[in-house]
Amino acid sequence: MVIALWIAIVSGFLLFFFWATNTVKLRTEDERFDAGLAIVEFGSAYPNEAIRDVVISSDGEMVFLRLWTGRTGCMRRNGTRFLCHVIDPSTISVTPSASGSGLVLDFPGLKTFSGEVNFRSSGEAAEVSLWLLGSLATKAEAQLDVPTHA
């Protein structure tokens, strides 16, 4: 009788242990898709940039941010840290991926940001590419001395 009681206690403890560790694994996977954390981290790296919109890659490793100034920022997860960067559109090369729902990015000076980034849909990939194109147009307008008629 005593042996059966101890077996029940140990098996209950083991069941609780496996349930608790599975819950922790699910929480760490969900943290990869946290847009709020990305906003806070980018805001601490670039405090003068206001964020308008956020698009996260399908694997959660890369985050693209549309900034209020018309520029585009990006973040890549590096372990438990984020590498933040405001993209200079004249130095980046962007091509669509073969899957159609991704982009192949080439940053000549930043190889950690280079590579293929897949999104949940082709619409998100198109939106990010339009942000990059819009930031290129914003940079061109800033370099030109365009008179205003106001």
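^ that was protein a. below is b, sequence first then the tokens
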Amino acid sequence: MQTLFPVGPVLPEGFTLIPDFLTEGEEQHLMDEVSKVALHPMRFQGYEAKRKVASFGYDWSFEKRSLSKGKEIPSEFFFLIQKVGRKLSLEPDRFVELLVTEYPIGSVINWHRDAPPFGLIAGISLFSDCTFRLRPYEKSKQGRSSIISFPLKRRSLYTMDGEARSAWEHSISPMKAVRYSITLRTVKEQISRYMKTH
């Protein structure tokens, strides 16, 4: 009698993982465009992280705790926004921010939830794999056994919405190779209405 085991970890409701979302050619095209982007060190509450970033569209300021319009999203990334939108049945203009990130060897992302005004988060992994981790946001539910850890492969797409977005936080283990990512974010409905009228 054959026993069937789950293929992968049980992920929180609202978290989706789509391997091989990009073709090798699409990944190379994005890497070519990313190489043209001027990246700068990520700064968070006075601390300079090891990773480098460039944000386009609406950006969240941790110091001012406000959302503001920044540089226009480069047209070279429109095909990616459209492809993600089709996959998620979302209009492309729902994505109001595009964030490019470079992760050098040894860099990490500590446990966090994304900035409060943002809604759905869509991340595209480029150039190398990483180890992605999830755990409950509520302190009383945290513990070693509550951490969900799994490989996030290059060319994959992950999304966080609903419970995965609000009741869980995430991190990335120290990088063993240089990695890049492109993160797309929507904003919550009430904030979206405000942005359209101001």
